[in-house]
Amino acid sequence: MRIDHKLQRVQVDSFEISDELVYRYFDSLPETEREAALLRAIRIGVLATMEDRFSAFLSKTTDDLGVQLENLKLLFDMKQEVFHKTAIKGVAAENDILDFLEEYIERNHLGDVVSLTGTSKGLLKNNKTGDIMAYVGGESSGRKVAIECKFDKSIKMGDVDSPDIASNKYDTAWSQLLEATVNRDTNASIIVFDKTLADASIQRAVDGVSYVDGIGFICIIDYEASDYQNLAVAYNLARGLALRKDGKNVEVEFVNMLIQRLLKDIRDVQSIGTLVKMNIKNNQQILKNIEKSLLSIEFDQKYLAKYLEDGYLSKMDLLEFYQREEIRGRYKMIAKEIEAEEGE
């Protein structure tokens, strides 16, 4: 292969490839179409290689590629299978999660500092558990959250019960979360799973995000779709736990109830956003629903953060949380503004 800088061309004298997928694809095409298909495949491959997230690239180019995209998707699925069987998947995921957290922290002006720690040993002997460290409010704050990334089908949910002493396969979501907390000496921890790799026991126990008593949060993300919404929720709550002012116990059922309510509101917003794209004529009502859900999310997070930080909610707080009068009035004003804009 030669690069002609003057003509800006790539020159290949002879080329041959032994690949079943490539062979079957070009064999199915008429001879007159094969050269153009080859050039298109090379261009698509170059674009995909340049793209940070291959799955995001496929999503963005679906409309342009047409039928040929099915072959590219097949190749992508094959690459994903290899990816899931190699250690590199963990490194890639950790870097993407770090990038997401940095953007989230900057966007929300939190002042936190996050860094990769998965290659360095912690307090436990020869132990590197805790892939990402977050310093809440800055490195000198003394408030820390550890994030452990587990893209491994072998990790089950587990519990406080002792493992089988005859087996060395004792890693569970529960134990890894506790291990990350101890190894990195943090106030709270998060363990992150990908929905395509999480064990069935984790899928059953965790609906997006779940709190484990006295340790931290388990969350499930959609890595291929670059959907880290559940991680954002878990991180926000872990920060509240790290900033907690006293040592009072957290009521697990109460926290998980609030988490599920929050996740429901977020899913409602996501569903509504899809409806906006599908049905422009319903914009007015959809916008009202979006604003209502956004207000509800803000309201839920306010009280959940207050509970995690203060350690309790007063009876007046609970009454206000139930009645939701604070956001009811704001929603009425927003609804009127949307109606006024529609009428103009």
Question: From the coordinates shown, what is the CATH architecture of the largest domain?
Answer: 3-Layer(aba) Sandwich
Q: Main beta sheet: strand number and arrangement?
A: 6 strands, mixed
Give unreliable regions as ranges.
164-168
CATH-derived topology of the largest domain = Trna Endonuclease, Chain: A, domain 1
Which structural category fits the helices and strands?
A: alpha/beta
Q: pLDDT average, as an integer? A: 78
The percent range for strand residues is: 5-15%
Order of helices and strands: EEHHHHHEEEHEHEEHHHHH
Helical run tally: 12
Assembly form of the protein: single chain
The CATH top-level class label of the largest domain: Alpha Beta
Q: What is the CA-CA span between the terminal residues?
A: 63 Å
> Percent helix among the residues?
40-55%
Q: How much is the radius of gyration in Å?
A: 25 Å
Q: Into how many domains do the coordinates divide?
A: 3
Count every beta strand, where a strand is a DSSP E run of 2 or more residues. Answer: 8
Strand order of the largest sheet: 3-4-5-6-8-7
Report the principal-axis shape.
globular
